[in-house]
TrEMBL record:
<dbReference type="InterPro" id="IPR050639">
    <property type="entry name" value="SSR_resolvase"/>
</dbReference>
<dbReference type="InterPro" id="IPR036162">
    <property type="entry name" value="Resolvase-like_N_sf"/>
</dbReference>
<dbReference type="GO" id="GO:0003677">
    <property type="term" value="F:DNA binding"/>
</dbReference>
<dbReference type="InterPro" id="IPR011109">
    <property type="entry name" value="DNA_bind_recombinase_dom"/>
</dbReference>
<feature type="coiled-coil region">
    <location>
        <begin position="443"/>
        <end position="497"/>
    </location>
</feature>
<dbReference type="GO" id="GO:0000150">
    <property type="term" value="F:DNA strand exchange activity"/>
</dbReference>
<dbReference type="Pfam" id="PF00239">
    <property type="entry name" value="Resolvase"/>
</dbReference>
<protein>
    <submittedName>
        <fullName>Recombinase family protein</fullName>
    </submittedName>
</protein>
<keyword id="KW-0175">Coiled coil</keyword>
<dbReference type="Pfam" id="PF07508">
    <property type="entry name" value="Recombinase"/>
</dbReference>
<feature type="domain" description="Resolvase/invertase-type recombinase catalytic">
    <location>
        <begin position="32"/>
        <end position="179"/>
    </location>
</feature>
<dbReference type="InterPro" id="IPR006119">
    <property type="entry name" value="Resolv_N"/>
</dbReference>
């Protein structure tokens, strides 16, 4: 059984309807008239347009002697929408009740849609419903000529809407090609205060100028994200410090990622391109170093009129870092999280399965994970040791490893860090790594091919729509379907290659800090665990920890600290560059 939910009318309309109801209480309900008011867009949310229409309807009814009993209102709803709540309620009243008259300003208030217009016409023909208009003629829907004239008026209203929509889309495309900022609320990082309104006292903003304090926040988010901090850690800190969004709200997980990865912040790096007429795009006249204006409807990108905040390499590095927190590429490999164990997902057990197990004598090969070991000293103090351990069972109590190998985390991380830093300072290895940074030109070429393919796909999709609507020959449908499928596959392949190149370039940027001796060593202590993990994974496939008698072993690191650690039991498997 369908339950009807009562609509809540605004206070101004409740007041008007109360007066109207008192005026018709003694009249025959068959003489009642239901008014209808509507406006498509109410950007200020003040309902001024519909209130004016209601006031005019009350005056019109009083002047012409109509028994206006109630006014129904759909504010901020398009005339092309057939499911407007107030209109549906009014049509139900005149279709089933004694009253058969609806009063509106003109036909366009009731509908700008062919199907809904046909429905209104049938109600007049079959149910005797009349539509009275203040700014239009009344149509006798009981006659063929009246129905024809009514539907012509509906067609004119629909055409007006479609023409306005086309003009709006053309204007939006033109503004995008100029790099104009989209409307809506202020974008975080922009909207510098340049003055005060003399009457309202509100701030006057330059939407294209940077807000230094918010740009500093974006740069902080960039650095902390690339250094491996999670969104939760960052937003908790920002909300605690009173840093709000552009609307004054608190930061949320997901909101932060969406904000940092906006292409609008990225310096335009897509090179020369032409507009729809084949001429050099007007956006290229904007200063170099500006951001990117994305035209969502066409998928095209233009050089914006506002300055950029991030480079492309920084943008891609943030995307890779955020993706690393969202999902693991290898579901069996432990995920490195922002925490105490930077080699998680890189350390493998080199022990063997014990006697009596199903795989006795075979290599374990289980991934080792971080764990804390607490020991009570003789003086009753607690010693806490960070370790990498091979777990015998996973979280579901299923046997997964030998459970016999463990090693001090600090010693392993220091030993591996020294080897990685030495490798990064090797000129030959640096030369190989730098090749991963030469993808910008290829990425730009792929972007141009993607935009071309996307444009062709839109065109073929439009032709397919024409076939399905009967405007073209049905024999073309099979060819169009194959063409569309081919273009979709091409787009998928191009975007896959582009993502791969950007991912490689971004990973390189995470650890790319130059070849000056001591530079990487200095940065290693200031960066987060995610950054150190990526810098290590850039060169190392995995670190194999073998069983050892660590209590009798000693190893001195580069800082002169002595560890109870057998470095000969650690095997580093390097990547092939």
């Amino acid at each position: 059984m369908k339950r009807t939910v009562a609509r809540k009318e605004p206070a101004w309309l409740v007041e008007i309807n109360a007066v109207l109801a008192d005026a018709v209480v003694d009249m025959d309900p068959s003489h009642w008239v239901y008014g209808y008011v509507r406006i498509s867009r109410d950007e200020k949310d003040r309902a001024e347009g519909v209130q004016l229409q209601a006031k005019n309807e009350v005056a019109y009814a009083a002047r012409t002697g109509l028994a206006l009993a109630r006014i129904l209102c759909d504010n901020d709803l398009s005339g092309a929408d057939a499911d407007r709540p107030a209109l549906r309620e009014g049509l139900a009243l005149v279709a089933s009740g004694p009253s058969k008259i609806i009063l509106a300003r003109d036909v366009a208030r009731l509908t700008r849609d062919y199907d809904l217009g046909n429905e209104l016409m049938k109600l007049g023909r079959d149910k005797g419903v009349r539509y009275v208009f203040m700014k239009d003629s009344e149509y006798d829907l009981a006659t063929g000529a009246g129905r024809k004239n009514f539907m012509v008026k509906v067609a004119e209203a629909a055409e007006y809407r479609e023409t306005n929509t086309e003009n709006l889309l053309d204007r939006m495309s033109e503004e995008a090609a100029k790099g104009v900022m989209q409307g809506g609320s202020r974008r975080f990082g922009y909207g510098k205060v340049v003055g005060t309104h003399p009457i309202t006292g509100e701030d006057i903003l330059d939407r294209y100028a940077l807000r230094a304090e918010e740009v500093a926040v974006l740069h902080e988010g960039r650095d902390r994200t690339i250094n491996g901090e999670s969104q939760t850690t960052i937003i908790t800190d920002w909300n605690k410090r009173g840093i709000t969004t552009s609307k004054g709200g608190q930061w949320r997980v997901g909101k932060l990622a969406d904000q940092l990865l906006l292409e609008a912040y990225v310096a335009y790096d897509l090179g020369e391109h032409a507009d729809v007429n084949g001429q050099r795009c007007e956006c290229l006249n904007n200063p170099e170093g500006n951001g990117i204006r994305v035209h969502e409807r066409t998928g095209t990108r233009h050089r914006a009129q506002w300055p950029a905040v991030f480079t492309r390499a920084e943008h891609d590095a943030m995307r890779v870092a955020l993706s690393a927190h969202r999902r693991a590429k290898d579901p069996d490999r432990p995920r490195q999280r922002n925490g105490e164990y930077e080699l998680t997902g890189l350390v493998e057990c080199g022990g063997v399965w014990p006697e009596g197990s199903e795989r006795a004598g075979r290599k374990c090969g289980n991934w080792m994970v971080g764990a804390m070991l607490q020991r009570k000293r003789k003086d009753d103090t607690i010693n806490v040791q960070r370790r990498y351990v091979c777990r015998a069972k996973d979280a579901t109590k299923v046997v997964c490893g030998c459970g016999k190998v463990f090693r001090d985390a600090g010693a392993v991380e220091m030993y591996v860090a020294q080897q990685v830093i030495a490798a990064h300072e090797n000129p030959q290895i640096l030369a190989r790594l730098d090749r991963g940074n030469d993808n910008a030109e290829r990425i730009a070429q792929l972007q141009q091919r993607i935009e071309t393919a996307a444009g062709n796909l839109d065109a073929e999709t439009d032709r397919r729509t024409e076939v399905l609507s009967g405007a073209r020959d049905q024999d073309d449908l099979r060819v169009l379907e194959r063409t569309i499928a081919g273009l979709k596959k091409t787009l998928k392949d191009l975007r896959g290659e582009q993502d791969s190149l950007r991912g490689a370039q971004a990973l390189a940027a995470l650890a790319d800090i130059g070849s000056t001796p001591g530079e990487l060593r200095k940065a290693w202590d200031t960066k987060g665990s995610r950054w150190r993990h990526e810098a290590t994974a850039r060169l190392i496939e995995k670190v194999v920890i073998k069983p050892a008698r660590v209590y009798a072993a000693k190893w001195v690191d580069q800082n002169g600290k002595t560890w109870r650690f057998d470095n000969s039991s650690v095997e580093i498997i390097w990547r092939e560059l």
